[in-house]
Amino acid sequence: MRLPDTGGSKVFRLVRQANPQARTILITGYRAELEPALERLLDAGANALCCKPFDLEQLFAAIERLGGT
Prior knowledge:
Layout: H1 8-18, E1 25-28, H2 31-43, E2 48-51, H3 56-65
Parallel strand pairs: 1-2
């Protein structure tokens, strides 16, 4: 969610604008303080959420569920 030159919310909006069908996984280490923003992104169409520290199997399962290999 926090990036050096921009924010994850802005990146998500740009991805969705470029490709409304894009499948997205939000990865963040700031769940507690950003929960309202994360909920808005999930409501806006983000497909999965992984919070740090996350289990790699959780991330791989989300990728597999979204059709990636």
